Amino acid sequence: MGPGPSDVNPRVLRSMSTPLVGHLDPSFVEIMDEVQELLRYVFQTDNQWTLPVSGTGSAAMEACIGNLVEPGDSVLLRTEGYWGDRMAEMARRAGGTVVSLPTAANDPVGMAEYERAFAEAEIDVVGICHADTTTGIRQPNVGEMTDVAHDHGAYVIADCVTSLGGVPVHVDDWGVDAAYSAAQKCLSAPPGASPLTISDRGMAKVLDRDEDVRSWYLDLSLLEGYWGDERAYHHTAPITNTYALREALRVAAEEGIEARWDRHARVSERLVEGLADLGLSMNPPEGLALPSLNAVRVPDGVDDGAVIDHLREAYDIEVAAGLGGLSGEIWRIGTMGYSARDKNVAYLLDAMADALAAEGYEQTTATTPA
Amino acid sequence: MGPGPSDVNPRVLRSMSTPLVGHLDPSFVEIMDEVQELLRYVFQTDNQWTLPVSGTGSAAMEACIGNLVEPGDSVLLRTEGYWGDRMAEMARRAGGTVVSLPTAANDPVGMAEYERAFAEAEIDVVGICHADTTTGIRQPNVGEMTDVAHDHGAYVIADCVTSLGGVPVHVDDWGVDAAYSAAQKCLSAPPGASPLTISDRGMAKVLDRDEDVRSWYLDLSLLEGYWGDERAYHHTAPITNTYALREALRVAAEEGIEARWDRHARVSERLVEGLADLGLSMNPPEGLALPSLNAVRVPDGVDDGAVIDHLREAYDIEVAAGLGGLSGEIWRIGTMGYSARDKNVAYLLDAMADALAAEGYEQTTATTPA
Question: pTM value?
Answer without folding.
Answer: 0.94
